[in-house]
């Protein structure tokens, strides 16, 4: 039974923080950030906005574009590494505010690969036949994990949310195809938030050291991101027996333009067929693939039958990819 994406939605906060704004906060400059990362600006949530507030708007937009009422949802999944609080889950808060009273809701954590991990989880729940309609959201307030004195990390991230509605839709053509997910916890120290969890709860010392914020070995992470996303893309194409030239659009996690270029050339995809919006939002972690997908739809980049690849890599390490054929309505 095909599992279809019925609609998409996204939300990014109104406040824009440009590279020039960052020049006033840390020792950096627009030229360095642009050439090393491709990022020109990012969105930053207001103090009052939590991850669930961003997720809610993206979810409402996805439901609207799907023509699905919240009461029809059976499952609400949110991929996030910046939940509103330890519990209840951010998904439960969003479920309530949406009025999705027939759904169960839970969070899932796979850092920047979260959206694809959640998509695959929801797809399997629907595929098993017990549930029909799912809402998958990737949402992050990454600014809450940043040390604004660390120029190696604070320039990279932004806030936002992306969402899709999935349905087990009898008689339709296309839909979600092969998926590969992977994890390697032996490299977890290369990208982490060392404190603020149960290992090292927040103490005055943690705050003093800023160890409740992101630490990263940038060059190592770069290397693994390229290796893992490239091999995932190649394996998926082989599995589906698709040529790289048959991909209408690759929608990768938006971390760094140089990473995207390295993968694109290794896999052999044309420049025009890779979706890029990292210049506008920076790295929004779990939200990034969902936001990019929604923007691609809004720009009319996807038509029925188009072959699409989603790709992501993140802390853990985690990585994943999924192929899909854009929906041809039944
Ligand atoms: N502005 C100006 N200079 C900076 C800077 C900034 N924001 N950040 C670092 N630098 C400096 C460094 O201090 C270093 O200076 P030095 O040579 O005097 O010591 C120099 O720039 C080079 O630093 P380096 O860390 O080697 O740069 P890089 O080319 O590896 O680029 C990243 C750094 C973070 C942009 C890059 O490694 C990267 O993108 N990695 C992957 C990150 C990522 O995507 N993470 C999320 C994965 S989901």
Evaluate the radius of gyration.
19 Å
Per CATH, the class of the largest domain reads: Alpha Beta
Report helical residue fraction: 25-40%
What structural class is derived from the secondary structure elements? alpha/beta
Principal-axis shape: globular
The number of distinct structural domains comes to: 2
Number-wise, the strands total 13
Number of helices: 10
- The percent range for strand residues is 15-25%
Would you identify the CATH H-level superfamily of the largest domain?
Thiolase/Chalcone synthase
Mean pLDDT: 97
Stated plainly, the CATH topology of the largest domain is called Peroxisomal Thiolase, Chain A, domain 1
Terminus-to-terminus distance: 12 Å
Pick out the low-confidence regions.
none
- Give me the side-by-side strand order of the main sheet: 1-7-6-4-5
Order of helices and strands: EEHHEHEHEHEEEEHEHEHHHEE
Biggest sheet architecture = 5 strands, mixed
Query: Any idea what the CATH architecture of the largest domain is?
Result: 3-Layer(aba) Sandwich
Ligand identities: coenzyme A
